[in-house]
Amino acid sequence: MDLGLLYPTRDCGEADFAELCRRLDPAIGLAFAYPEWGADGEPGTAAAVREIGAPERLTQAADHFPAAPDVVSWACSSCSFTHGLDGARAQATALAGHLGVPASSTSLAYLAALERLDVGRVALASVYHPDLTASFAAFLAEAGVTTVHAVSADAGSDRTIATWGPARITELTEAADHEEAQVVLVPETALHTTPLLGELETRLGKPVLTATAVTVWDALDRLGEEPVQNGLGTLFRSAAGRRRPSSSSA
């Protein structure tokens, strides 16, 4: 099976996706294509984040996959949730119609994963500015998910975030945890979180859903696969049944 990931910034978090796919199944094919940042502000600004997530910009980038994938995902948290739930669905619908394959995004993958785990109260370990963290909480609220606590690192660009080591990621995740949260979300695909998936859940005693993990899990699930592998956290530890019909996923 071949996964096609649209990714916003070249040479940031692709290696983390590749590592996760290798650990799940070395036969998984993985290809990246890169939408172009527009002229409406510097990459990473609110205006630029919205512009790069325009459906037509995503479908143009999808034409640059080296071969047609079996499933495609817009592998960016902020560039999907800043468009709201309807906007994220529109992105996935445009990609599915253009390529003729199942399509999703990291933000929609979060909703699918939360539904699969049957949880509705979350904490956010956010690398974003507080305003952008609030935007993600608003996106989740549209789908009926309550954010009980959030921390915002305001860490800057994708390239800066991609340099974070395990200790800093762990510190942010632990700071975000809250006794009322059933799950902690770490919404940033530039972070290298695959080596930490099992350890983070052991430390917190609850599921920790990283952007890389939910994106890959959701893409495979949309193909009818059951990605199961010990040491990679709750989503991959057991197949909790097939996807249920949902208003939250595209």
TrEMBL record:
Keywords recorded for this protein, A-Z: Isomerase
Entry keyword annotation includes Isomerase: yes
GO molecular function: isomerase activity
One Pfam family cited in the UniProt record for this chain: Amdase
UniProt xrefs under Gene3D superfamilies: 3.40.50.12500
Protein's UniProt keywords contain Cell membrane: no
Protein name, as recorded: Maleate cis-trans isomerase
Protein species of origin: Amycolatopsis lexingtonensis
